[in-house]
Amino acid sequence: MPPRDRQWADPFPVEHEGRTHIFLEQQIGHGNGTLGVIELYPDLSCSGFTPIMEKEYHLSFPNIFRGGKSAASWYMVPESHENSTIDLYHSVEFPYTWEHEATLIGGVRAVDTVVFYHNSKWWLFTSLDTETTPLNANLSVFYSDVFPSTDWKAHPQNPVVSGLSNSRMAGAIFRDRGSGALIRPAQNCLKDYGKETNLNEIVELSPSGYRERIIKTISPEKSLHAVCTHTINISEHFMLRDIKTRRSRFIRGEAHTPPPPRPLALPVMEERQ
Fold it and tell me: Domain segments of the chain: what residues?
């Protein structure tokens, strides 16, 4: 849990060289979100928050992935919609030092962008703010044959998903090792921002077609006083989610802290170039 004067959101776990790092957004009061990292230790205790990126505009959703010319290279695409860019950073000294690599797409207000490799192409999933497509009610897809790229082709079905209930990304796309299915987490914002998280199986993803189906809905746990859950991400051994709680600071005169969620390991297969 974060200190009482701030909130943490959008956790992305990365397991690297025997250590587990959690990249996330930190927001203090109504200030801009900044990005940082927490180390998760083997006994499930955590280090403090170390800042890694701060701008004059809001940052969140630090999508971390490997790719490019070297499979060992770490990249990050954070949300930077207030800057009207989708920016790519590469790791200079993992996990703390990052440098700007390229602006993948400029002149757009986009949120919660995910980049991944599948079937010999690089794919970019994002939600765009336009006159006809509000941020929480659309999903657009772009693709490229190379990475990094500044020439992304728009999918002919864009927006491939519309509506508040299942459009905006809720984490990185991953493969389920049991079924081999490609899974897209999405936010249900129909009743509230990030009220629930849907897991969608991508049935078709090609330059000409896109289809998906909801296979599971994750609701906030009442036992944790949670009212929203809007991010889910996985690494080799861990699944991380964030929850928003509304509760009294004190119960029967004593400080009350809800119990932590039970650690859950999920089998995952990463597809890399």
Answer: 6-269
List strands edge to edge, sheet with 50-53. Answer: 6-16, 19-28, 34-40, 50-53
pLDDT of residue 260: 52
> How, if at all, do strands 226-234 and 268-269 pair?
unpaired
Whole-structure pTM value? 0.89
The model's pLDDT over 110-161, given as tens digits with 9 standing for 90+, comes to 999 999 999 999 999 999 998 888 889 999 999 999 999 999 999 999 999 9
Q: What is the pLDDT of residue 256?
A: 47
**Residue-level pLDDT at 153:** 98
**Nearest by Cα to 3 from 27, 33, 32, 36:** 27
Write down the CATH number for the domain with range 6-269: 2.115.10.20
Share of the chain above pLDDT 70, in %: 89
Contacts 24+ apart (CB under 8 A), 157-162: 157/209, 157/210, 159/128, 159/133, 160/210, 161/186, 161/212, 162/133, 162/137, 162/138
Local structure of 22: helix, strand or coil: strand
Separation between Cα atoms, residue 120 and residue 125, nearest integer Å: 16
Structure tokens at 23: 């990249």
SS3 label, residue 135: helix
Q: For position 134, what pLDDT does the model report?
A: 85
Taking alpha carbons only, the member of 83, 47, 81, 64 closest to residue 12 is 64
Q: How many CB atoms within 10 Å of residue 149?
A: 18
